[in-house]
Design goal:
Layout (H helix, E strand, L loop, with lengths): L1 E5 L1 H8 L6 H11 L5 E4 L6 H13 L2 E2 L13 H16 L24
Parallel strand pairs: 1-2, 2-3
Helix pairs in contact: 1-2, 1-3
Length: 117
């Protein structure tokens, strides 16, 4: 199950097993049954309470994945950034879509060495 975007309110409710709505209840069941749960946490900046909630859900078995753009893939449009974040979430869930672009040596910029060597 992927929760995207996951507000800090939802993350806190999941961390404390407060099944007061369908989203939090479904996430609670995922954790209870040891199924994958990916939370795309959207808040920034974070304070200690946010970090503790993230730590708690991670200890319970969830995966917290902030929607950080992969600029090393050199996206041109905002659609490419969104697509990459969605594909990463699917990969974390274990259902990698076909033709997903991932980091390879071809993406790595050439190293520049002192002296031009």
């Amino acid at each position: 199950m992927i929760v995207a975007p996951c507000s800090m309110r939802s993350l806190g409710a999941i961390a404390n097993s407060l099944s007061d709505n369908l989203l939090v209840r479904a996430a609670d069941v995922q954790l209870k049954e040891r199924r994958r749960l990916v939370l795309i946490a959207r808040e920034s900046p974070l304070h200690l309470g946010h970090l503790r909630a993230m730590c708690a859900v991670t200890e319970m078995g969830a995966i917290v994945a902030p929607p950080s753009p992969a600029f090393y893939l050199k996206p041109v449009t905002s659609d490419e950034i969104i697509d990459q974040i969605a594909r990463r979430a699917a990969d974390l869930l274990g259902v990698l879509p076909p033709m997903a672009r991932q980091w390879t040596d071809a993406c790595r910029p050439p190293l520049s060495r002192p002296g031009g060597v």
